[in-house]
């Protein structure tokens, strides 16, 4: 019997693999399969921790109506009778889901523009931004890019006198979110405002390069940036706004001259290589005056823009908006709040990526 040579190479150690247990025997076809106690209706379904959700375990929370006669019936029957949700509740939930669409790219820029003044462009910017900020968990900011003393700062209670020019001059010092908050004002809805200069001679110098520099700062701290543009398509900052925009919101009054100006804006955009933005745009028909005897066919007007853009939203007249002061969502009429939620849902459809 010879001894093994200690210098002889040995086969390297190989760990033993754990053998998977054999699958349980399957009952023959037609034999009655027994279910474990309490597992009724779950045969063949793999159970995980996600299966233990509040809706399935808490009887009182299952399909509990939010209000109206459905809620009364649900409470009177101690939860035994579940009428289900009304179409209005389901529709609102669907709109909220669309408005809360995660921003796929991390930062999304929406340009709100109009070729004609006095049609509710700035009001629409704040209404849309406040709605998005109030229903989402991320940060939303609105920037005033109007070269002629924009009125965006009049729509919220200012917390600082700083402007977009101040942020531009100090942008190298901004490292954290708390730094940028020194230049913005926040509304109760959580929407933040970056105001423009009140001196038109200074704000006119705000160029496309300046807007791009400000945008580079904002994209590090906000998920959504709404830009309240000026009424001219050829002013200094507009090329920078359109060059960076992911989506457009075009505001028009439901009148002949307002609609023509809005449609001419679309013509100009298509002629200057922004056809993709036009197709994905949302048009807002904003009624800035009380109900009148106007003979404008709103259905035909809506059909015209629907054929050119992705969506058309009507915003009714609201006395709170007519005041021209700070906008409070709680003071808006229900129909106005509904229209802004519909607008937020339409804009939210673009957060997930390019629209087909």
Automatic annotation (TrEMBL):
InterPro entries: CobQ/CobB/MinD/ParA_Nub-bd_dom (IPR002586), P-loop_NTPase (IPR027417), ParA/MinD_ATPase (IPR050625). Pfam families: CbiA. Residues 1-62 are annotated as: Disordered. It comes from the Bacteria. Residues 1-14 have a biased composition (Basic and acidic residues). Residues 110-322 form the CobQ/CobB/MinD/ParA nucleotide binding domain. This is AAA family ATPase. It comes from Sphaerisporangium corydalis.
